Model the fold of this input.
Amino acid sequence: MAANSWPEQTKLINTRIPRLDGIAKASGKAKYPSDERPEGTLFGVILYSPHPHAKIKSIDTTVAEKMAGVKAIEVIAGPGKFVRYHGDDIAIVAAESEEQALDAVRAIKVDYELLPHAATEEQAMAKNAPEVVRGGNVRKGRAQTTGKPDEALQKADAVIEAAYSVPVVTHVCLETHGLTARWDDKNHITAWASTQAVTATANELAESNEIPVSNVTVLTEVMGGGFGSKFGADIWGTTAARLSKKVGGRPVKIFLDRIQEHLAGGNRPSASAKIKLAGNKDGKITGMIAETHGTGGVARGAQFPLPYVYSIPNFKREHSDVFVNGGNARAMRAPGHPEGCIIMESAIDDLAAKLGIDPLEIRKANLAPGDFRTKIYLDEIAIGADLIGWKQNYKPRGTQKGIIRRGFGLALHQWGGGGANDKQVSCTISSDGTIELKSATQDIGTGIRTVLAIIAAEVFGLKPTDIKSNIGNSTFPPGQSSGGSTTTPSMSPPCYNACLEARDELFKKIAPGLRGTPPVTDLSLADGQLLVKGQPVMSFKDACRKIGMNPISTLGKSSPGLASNGVGGVQFVDVTVDMETGVVKLNKIVAVQDSGLIIDKMTWESQVYGGVIGGLNYGMFEERVVDPISGRMLNPDMELYQLAGASDIPEIIVHAYEPPEQKQRGVIGIGEPPTIGTAAAIGNAVSNAIGVRVTHWPMTPMNVLNALAAQEGKA
Amino acid sequence: MRDNASSSNSGNRRDFLRGSGVAAATAVFTQTAQVGMDEAAAEALAAQGVAVQSGSMKITLQVNGQSMVSEVEPRSTLLDVLRHRLDVTGPKRVCDRSSCGACTILLNGQSIYSCTTLAVAAQGKEIRTLESFDTGPKSVAHAFHQNDGLMCGYCTPGFVTACQALLEKNPNPTLEEVKKGLDGNICRCGTYVGVVQAALDAAKAIKV
Done:
């Protein structure tokens, strides 16, 4: 029987358990896909476009083909094809060494017909702009209208009119996109892939090579970060397989270099908004009119949620996707939400300042009545306010004096998430006492391997380290792709059911052979022992010996009641700003987060810290800088593309909001929510400190000084 | 200037300078340099007493107490030789430009970025990667594990190595010294809170 709730009393679930692969990772012994070098491996190096827009007139690989070590070349963009952004793929060379492949890439002669480009939004939206795609660079979506926004704005006590924007940022996965593909024989491919989706990657390799997917094995034992950008084999992976075939099956390893990773490995779209927000003295927001746009490069995908979190009775919104000659956007941790949160939370803060209302109170006044999140938000705001010291510390915007000023801000966020109900986990108990779980999901650093082991250990009365938690193999039972905070809620229920069924099967098999032939209902497992009527009778291992030659094997499926979706979350930020230099120093961040039943509090906490730090980067440092003249990205590195280091991290307080009713909701994912609100809250804290809105993210000295200059009319 | 590496010329391979010219050569032959130096310039430098090497050559590296022989090119970085030729894959290639620290190793006890160190320049020196570090209860690795100072784990080798180097030099670091000691490393998952605590815990544990 499948379970419909989690046990009320648990020994392991909802405690702090270090991850199973922690020592392997911290000792350098964990083998990442990019560490694998199966015998005979050739190295693939990619030739990518140095131009933002060009037609390939001709491509000559003859010299390259004859160079030392070169085994095969695949042309991706041949004569007549277009490259549409700096970093677009042209050809890939496979050679004995990476150095040789690099030399051959340099020896490929490409004759480009350079075409005019529109690499920035400004260029793309200008009159007579070169067309990035046919049909125009600006795609207006249908306007959404609710109520009577124009009338609401006329009647309101106060209206703010503002523009906010946040630039394109890139995922910066530390392990770049890529895989090593090998034709094992004429019909089988094995690939070691850095992916968030072993199943999708296997499907793509099978389809592009015209073999059944059952003949493809994709392995991802561990992987070095994806953040939403690694959901398939990509052109690089499918080409690696083609090259491998060309050279008689030798493995071909293709991982992007850091530059192309920035250019073509995905990005989070920009977002800009012209917004009018109206409200009354009682703090109620009455209306909003917003024009928004953003760019996802040569692809769509710059849409984001707005209005966000708050209940606004009258609103009108028009959104346009702008196409530019830039690498295409991919889902990035909580796609759309950080952008929507920045726009909404800035506007509501500016309205509060104009109305002379405490930012905390205006938020409380505009939560959706009747929504299940409203009570959660109210509780979380109270907890967070306490932890940041809002009452003692908060001063209204514009009341601060001096060169060094302190400010406080907050932001609310939400995420849907939730699990898929069609995933499976197998559980095998062998007569030597081994318990093995299998599923074709993968651990992208979130800790799902450990979560599954904790659930199994809970059921079998063992330690998580006793469980073989085997994932990262596309031939295992269907598992969830790791995205959208869906992995844990998708995988925990089938894992729990598989283990319960295996345990029941074990009891059924061994009960008749036990002294006094007790009914199975008298059996239980705890602390590595088999118990009859609560009394230990033998070790778990000895009990397993009694099952005989054939192992017990079950396939668990999902069942209702074990997982849920939909979370809120509130973050508070405390900053100090130097009015002369524009330098922002973060003092403290508080994150209060709900997420149902937490399986492993340790990895959960890491996810929240990580989400906050991701948001901190978005709020303080990150920006893809594109040169309008050359159309090239100027900072495709990890020096000028800035990310926080240890000294940039302030005190961070993570508070898990988990009253009993949260635990009863079952499992909900946690990857996305805590990264959403941070950048918005940082912006609000900075504005609170300096008395003026910084309209463009991130909160760099330049953007802060520009905002101060604009206020003085010097912009 | 050492002369233990032979200088075999294999046609089109770009020339390389080493010996007393290592520092200058490193500056010239980073991977960003567009093309190799032309022959005239190489000859001019050779006349100044700088050896010219090209092609591929056999070198011996002392890695984690073992002698490892590898066929490398003069331009091959230490990181790439470790990872691509010797399967010492603990150190990771991330930025490939000395910005992020994922490739950190210990060279004669100093923590260095192996992505911008030439393999030929590491001959005769003691190379230690984190695979050789203790992983027991009083180790840096253990402290990272217990504090969950890692998520995807791809930056972790660099952080563990930087931490090891810091503690070997300064067994009693303050919080600020730990942060400063790890500022040459970048984590994208955002594990800094656990990492810093791990460093402090490891310092305490190692002393006991």
User: Anything to note?
Assistant: The longest strand of chain A covers residues 285-295. The CA atoms of residues 432 and 545 of chain A lie 6 Å apart.
